[in-house]
Specification:
By secondary structure, the chain is mainly β. It folds into two domains: 141 residues, Immunoglobulin-like (Sandwich); 157 residues, no CATH class. Helix content is 7%, strand content 40%. The chain is built from three helices and 24 strands. The strands form five sheets. A seven-stranded antiparallel beta sheet has the order 1-2-3-4-5-9-8, with helices on one face. Strands 12, 13, 14, 15, 16 and 19 form a six-stranded antiparallel beta sheet that branches. The protein starts with 25 loop residues before the first strand and ends in a 6-residue tail after the last strand. Keywords: Signal. InterPro entries: DUF1176 (IPR009560), IalB_sf (IPR038696). Pfam families: DUF1176 (PF06674).
Length: 352
């Protein structure tokens, strides 16, 4: 999930009060803001303003105890950016006190083409001002060029509460909105990877021009590339791998077992019998249950293609995925059927 979100995501207007599971992203829309939380419960709330000098803003908070809030803003004219700085930003809520951000707490992200603001000035007191305010003005100075815009804060309070609930911070001391006296929650065993440079060096070449995952867009990692610390000795990586199509994103699995890191094969069923594959599509992973799902769409409607599910299991040689379900529906123009009712390749049905 990059700061600059992909349009067309399904949006939910509320999140239930039940337990949070990091199986799939969570979305919300409140006033002038959209919120997107990744599988690792890292959340971004954003606003788009067409034609403004700063045409997008995003507030980001990662999961984990007492993590900081960062703010990113995008200049409308990007070909005039001076990527070497010096940079400076000033933020005010409803014309109140000025919050100044200078180096090293501001930089230009060349991948997202955004200015990123961080540091101790973006504290709980400032977040309270934003939560209770009506307008946030941000002025960015890039060399001799100054760019500013007044962003609406309509929906910010609900957005911050949404993030607190998704991240399990309600009534905790590190909440953004629903602050209380409870201590911060423990960190979860799932993390995001946002840049190729964050990948283990042993597999970084796989994402180069001639690697097995060549063509992977670096921006696709953020929110879709995850790391699960299975145990003290094993770490699982689920990573976008290759060029994404119109409605299918390829993924690959890697397993670091006792210091040995390499591609992890998945069991699959073919017409002639069982086999293995190093690739899956449109993956979703629930680290709490160990369930891994994939759904290859034969076409955009999703009325045909391939549905697969595995569960993480401990074997004598280490962690493996066991195939629990595989269904295939031909794109032959037949009457649409729910994917759970597609013909099963596994488990084998009686009479097959």
């Amino acid at each position: 999930m990059t700061f600059r979100m992909i349009a067309g995501l399904a949006l939910l207007t509320a999140v239930s009060a039940g337990a949070v599971h990091a199986a799939e992203p969570r979305f919300g829309e409140f006033g002038d803001w959209r919120v997107n939380c990744s599988q690792a419960l890292n959340c971004v709330m954003e606003q788009f303003v067409s034609g403004a000098p700063l045409d997008q803003i995003a507030l980001r908070r990662d999961a984990g105890p007492e993590t900081a809030v960062t703010i990113a803003v995008w200049p409308d004219v990007r070909d005039e950016r001076q990527a070497d700085g010096p940079w400076r930003a000033v933020m005010t809520v409803d014309g109140g006190r000025a919050i100044e951000i200078a180096a090293p707490d501001i930089y230009f992200d060349a991948v997202d083409q955004a200015f990123v603001l961080s540091g101790p000035a973006i504290d709980s007191a400032f977040i309270d001002e934003v939560r209770n305010g009506e307008t946030l003005r941000i002025e960015v100075q890039d060399g001799d060029l100054k760019t500013a815009h007044d962003f609406s804060l309509r929906g910010v309070a609900a957005s911050l509460l949404f993030i607190d609930e998704v991240q399990g911070r309600i009534d905790r001391v590190d909440a953004l909105s629903a602050r209380g006296d409870l201590p911060p929650a423990d960190a979860i065993a799932l993390k995001d990877i946002r840049r190729f440079s964050d990948l283990p060096e042993a597999i970084r070449d796989d994402f180069g021009d001639t690697g097995r995952c060549a063509g992977t867009d670096e921006s696709s990692l953020d929110g879709d590339a995850i790391v699960h610390a299975i145990s003290a000795n094993e770490t699982l990586y689920l990573l976008p791998c290759g060029m994404s199509g119109a409605y299918n994103m390829p993924y690959a699995l890697y397993l670091d077992s006792f210091g040995n890191l390499g591609p992890m094969p998945l069991p699959v069923m073919l017409d002639k019998g069982p086999s293995t594959s190093f690739f899956l599509y449109n993956a979703g992973y629930n680290f709490e249950t160990g369930v891994l799902d994939a759904f290859f769409k034969g076409r955009g409607l999703g009325d045909c293609g391939q549905l697969q599910s595995w569960v993480l299991t401990r074997s004598v040689s280490g962690s493996v995925f066991v195939l629990t379900e595989e269904r295939v529906q031909d794109c032959d123009g037949s009457e649409p059927v729910a994917p759970e009712n597609w013909p099963a390749l596994w488990p084998v049905q009686q009479g097959q």
